[in-house]
Q: What sequence folds into this?
């Protein structure tokens, strides 16, 4: 890999990870201040994200030629998983701090992917099982009854968000055209957004600040962020991508301190160390076991 390509990949990866963390900051900033309700934030985020991705996809097709790309239009399962992630993500941030929410989200995503892989027949090495157990202990410690623990409702909602995003991630692993699949999956969330609007119309409230924050989340940190991440993935191995994402809760926690005036608690630091350390053991354990098998063959 040339130095120029390495620098490009590193820069794009950093921007994508910041975008992922910024989603948590923007959502918490909007909902924590009461600038907008969770339903409206979700709807604006998904709709603006769909428009942004559709524009990006159209520009890409006009530049490279649509006939050269594999035509792929996602699935309704992926679209619903995306919607479920977005709505539970928003409602969770009504009662969970930025860094805590990001830790629960990305920890759950990784554990979901691992457990679903096991259910599909993948066998884990003892080091990988050890990592899963350690990560689970970290979650238990995070929600132990204490004044600094997150609300159980917020924890459960963000856990559902993580599971949904994990399923969405697995659905997209076999995609030959991730950008097109993601665009159509965003478009498929529109009927669910419409249904959500019908049920929450009476409780909706919003301000200019809330709308702007939701638009930033949809267009910049979701639409452009996901696009940048897909480009960066071309220069990253699956192990590197998994390890890199472990930095998102840390970036989100820092963003929470800087923009939402939150405090990073000792409990969060200890829990993050245990959870992310456990997941890192799983990722590295899998990598080294694959390397060992490859060397034998």
A:
């Amino acid at each position: 890999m040339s130095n120029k390509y390495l620098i490009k990949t590193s820069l794009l990866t950093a921007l994508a990870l910041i975008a992922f963390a910024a989603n948590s900051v923007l959502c918490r900033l909007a909902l924590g201040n009461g600038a907008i309700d969770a339903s409206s934030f979700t709807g604006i985020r998904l709709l603006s994200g769909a428009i942004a991705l559709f524009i990006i996809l159209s520009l890409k097709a006009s530049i490279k030629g649509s006939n050269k790309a594999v035509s792929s239009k996602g699935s309704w399962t992926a679209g619903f998983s995306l919607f479920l992630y977005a709505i539970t993500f928003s409602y969770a941030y009504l009662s969970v701090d930025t860094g805590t929410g990001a830790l629960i989200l990305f920890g759950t995503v990784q554990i979901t992917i691992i457990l679903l892989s096991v259910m599909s027949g993948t066998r884990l090495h003892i080091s990988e099982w050890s990592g899963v157990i350690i990560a689970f202990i970290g979650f238990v410690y995070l929600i132990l009854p204490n004044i600094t623990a997150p609300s159980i409702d917020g924890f459960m909602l963000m856990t559902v968000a993580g599971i949904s995003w994990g399923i969405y991630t697995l659905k997209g692993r076999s995609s030959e055209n991730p950008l097109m699949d993601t665009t159509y999956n965003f478009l498929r969330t529109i009927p669910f957004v419409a249904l959500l609007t019908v049920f929450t119309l009476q409780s909706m409230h919003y301000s200019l600040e809330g709308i702007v924050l939701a638009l930033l989340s949809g267009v910049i940190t979701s639409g452009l962020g996901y696009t940048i991440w897909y480009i960066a993935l071309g220069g990253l191995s699956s192990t590197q991508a998994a390890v890199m994402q472990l930095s998102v809760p840390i970036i989100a926690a820092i963003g929470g301190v800087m923009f939402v005036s939150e405090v990073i608690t000792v409990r969060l630091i200890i829990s993050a160390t245990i959870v992310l350390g456990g997941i890192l053991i799983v990722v590295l354990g899998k990598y080294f076991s694959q390397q060992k098998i490859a060397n034998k063959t």
